[in-house]
Amino acid sequence: MCPGVCKDRLADAFDRFGRVPIEKRKIVVPPDHSAFRSAEDPFWSAGGLLHDGRGRVLLIHHVAAAGWGDAWVTPGGRLEEGETTVDGLRREVREEVGLDATEPVLTRILQQTFSDGTRVRHGYFAQFVARASSTVPRPGPDVREARWFETLPADLAFREDYVADFKRFV
User: Fold this and answer.
1) In 3-state terms, what secondary structure has residue 62?
2) Are 102 and 128 in contact (CB under 8 A)?
């Protein structure tokens, strides 16, 4: 486990959603990766599949400065101080696509170690599935495109992490 705020976030998530799997992974990233843009260690993020209740999911392309290139990603991002995982998910969805995330279900927590070969940063990602309050996204300033998909595209970042969630919930 982890001390302080990390332990509090895990406890809150488990109280609200029940015990979910915690999966560990190591990821090699370039030196300019967002994991190194903050001194917070470990950092927390939340995001996941946002569906319309009809079998489609909303994915986004970020602006170039976000560092995701042309990969599709799920709405989500870093948690703010004092924020729970579900509150962070809801805020990030509102900021990125202008919608409310309803009926959230926490499906897993990824305990990640990022390394660029010289530095290491630790992070947690709370992965959710939630229903969108509308089918009309209003992309925020960091999003260049938001689109509904009936299947997960091949160029979805971390695609394998979402296959089971897509089959189960969407």
Assistant:
1) strand
2) no
CA–CA distances in Å: residue 17 to residues 13, 85, 95: 6, 11, 23
Return the structure tokens found at 115: 């390394």
Express each pLDDT in 71-113 by its tens digit: 999 999 999 999 999 999 999 999 999 999 999 999 999 999 9
With beta carbons less than 8 A apart as the criterion, state whether 90 and 139 touch: no
Structural contact between residues 48 and 165, judged by C-beta atoms closer than 8 angstroms:
yes
C-alpha span between 110 and 161 (Å, rounded): 10
The tens digit of pLDDT for each residue in 101-152 reads: 999 999 999 999 999 999 999 999 999 999 999 999 999 999 999 999 999 9
CB 52 within 8 A of CB 132: yes
